Amino acid sequence: MDMERVIEEILQKIVPTEEERAFVNELMEELEEIAWEAIEGLGLDVRPYFVGSLAKDTYLAGDHDVDLFLAFPLDTPIEELRERGLELGKAIAENLDSHEVAYAEHPYVRGLYRDVEVDLVPCYDVRDWRDVRTAVDRSILHTRWVLENINGKNDEVRLLKRFLKGIKAYGSEVYVRGFSGYLAEILVIKYGSFREVLSSAEVMLRGKIIDSTGWLRRERELAMATVEREKEKPLVVLDPVDPRRNVAANLSWERFGRFYFKAREFLERPSVEHFFPPEPFSGDYLRLLREKGTHLLTLLFEAPEGVDDVVLPQVEKSARGIARGLDVEGFTVRGHTWGRGFIMFEVERIERPGVRLQRGPEFYSEQGKMFYEKYDRVWLVERTLYAEREQEEDIVETLVRLLERGSVPLGKHLRGPIREADILVDFVPKKLEKEAYLFLSRGKTSLK
Q1: CATH homologous superfamily of 15-136
Q2: Are β-strands 242-246 and 384-390 bridged in parallel, bridged antiparallel, or unpaired?
Q3: Does domain 150-274 have CATH number 2.60.120.260?
Q4: Residue 147: CB partners within 8 Å, gap ≥ 6?
Q5: Between 285-292 and 433-440, two packed helices, what is the crossing angle to 10 degrees?
Q6: Residue 311 has pLDDT above 90, yes or no
Q7: What is the pLDDT of residue 444?
Q8: Tens of pLDDT, residues 330-384
Q9: Would you kindly state where each structural domain of the chain is located, as residue ranges?
Q10: Cα(87)–Cα(122) distance, integer angstroms
Q11: What angle in degrees, to the nearest 10, is found between the helix axes of 18-42 and 78-93?
C-alpha cells in the first residue's frame, strides 16, 4: 500500500468527527463554568486554563482526557497554593460524577465527568519562563506556544502521535521514557509534517540539538548549560518556552532507537500496522522456557495505592535493583519485566556451584587482616587476597537473603511488600500467563 493511501486511512480513524468536536467543546464549556462558580464561591483570585492536547486540538479521536489547571497569582506562598488548590479542586469535583485526590509534586484532584477523566491541577499563573515555580507551571506556556505556532498542522501531529503509540514509543512518564505529546508537537512544527519528522530521524541523531526559538542565541549561557547537562541523552530539544529545560529529557535510547528503525521502515514499506499493530500473539510460556533452556523467576506482591506516576517508577527501581543483585550472585539475568503487583526475571540458572571466588583487599591493609581471618581458604595473587566461600545454591534462598539484608535497592514504598512477596519459579498464575509469554518471547519489546 502506498504512503498516501495509508495516511488517508489512518486520518479517518484518528481525526475527531464534528460530533466528537461538539461534545468536547460542550464538555470544556461546562467544566469552565463549574470551575468559575467554585472559584467565586471560595472568593479566590484564580484563573482556570485548559492545557494539553484538548486545548491545542491535537487530541486523537476517542481520547478526551481533560487537564484543567487552576492558576494562582505568583505571590501566593507554595503551601497556600497546595492547600487552597486542593480545596478548590475538591469544590469543583463536587459537581463531577466522581473524584479522588492524587499526588505528584503537590496534591491534585482527579475526577470523572461524563465518562471523561478530568485532572484539576493547581499551578502558578506564569507569563514567562522566569515565573516558573513548580514543574507543572510550564504547561500553560506550552499550550500557548503550540497554539501560536502550529499553523494548521494539527492532523500532522495526530499522525505522529498515533505512529509513536503504534511503535510503543509514546509517553514521557518515567516508566515509559518515550516521546511526549508536546515533543511530538515541537517536532512537527520544526520539520513541517509527519513525513518530514520521520525523514529527519537520522538528522536528529546526528545533530542532537533542536532549538526552535533561538535560545542558543538569546540566552546562550542558560541554553548551553542545558545542552551540557543533557549531552548523554539521545536528543536535546530546548523547550521553546524555557531555555533551562530539555523537552526530551525522559526519552531513552531504547525508545528513540525504536523510532529510528520504525521511521525508516515506514518510509520504505508504509503500512497501517505501524499505527495500529495487531495484538501480540500469545502462546505456551512453559514450552517456550523449555525451548530456550532458561528459567522464570516471578515475585507477586501487594502494590501500594497511588497513581501510576508514583507507584510504577518504584516497581521499576525495585526490578532493576533485584536484577543487579541476582547478576552479582551469579544467576545471569537475561531480562526483566514488571507491572503493578509483579516482577518477572528470565535467568540462566536457578541453582549454581556451592563455592564462589571472593576477591579481597590488598594484604597489608587493615581490611586485609580482617579478610584473612574471615575465610578458611585464602591465597594471594600479587598483592591481592582471594578466598573461596560457600554460598546458597538456590535462587529463591539467595533472593530472600538479599531482601532480608537490604542488599538491593527497592522503591521506598515497596520495601515491605516485596520482602513479603510470593516467589515463584517456572510458574505464574493464570492471569499472568500471557504476560509471561510476551516477556519471554520479547513480544512487547522486539523491534521486528
Answers
A1: Beta Polymerase, domain 2 (3.30.460.10)
A2: unpaired
A3: no
A4: 55, 56
A5: 30
A6: no
A7: 76
A8: 899 999 999 999 999 999 999 877 777 889 999 888 999 999 999 988 999 999 9
A9: 15-136, 150-274, 285-352+391-440, 355-390
A10: 10
A11: 120
CA distance 420 to 398: 15
Cell representation of residue 210:
533542536
Quick: pLDDT tens for 175-210: 889 999 999 999 999 999 999 999 999 888 888 899
Find out whether 436 and 426 touch, Cβ atoms under 8 Å.
no
pLDDT band at residue 261, thresholds of 50, 70 and 90?
very high
Grid cell for residue 405? 539484608
Q: What is the CATH number of domain 285-352+391-440?
A: 3.30.70.590
Question: Model confidence at 105, in pLDDT bands (50, 70, 90)?
Answer: low
Phi, psi of 231 (to 5 degrees): -65, -20
Question: In this structure, what is the dihedral angle of CA atoms 111, 116, 117, 120, given to the nearest 10 degrees?
Answer: -60
Give the contacts of 168 (CB within 8 A, at least 6 positions apart).
178, 255, 258, 444, 445
Q: Model-level pTM?
A: 0.85
CB 150 within 8 A of CB 56: yes
Q: Which residues, other chains included, contact 256 with Cβ-Cβ below 8 Å and sequence gap of 6+?
A: 169, 205, 234, 235
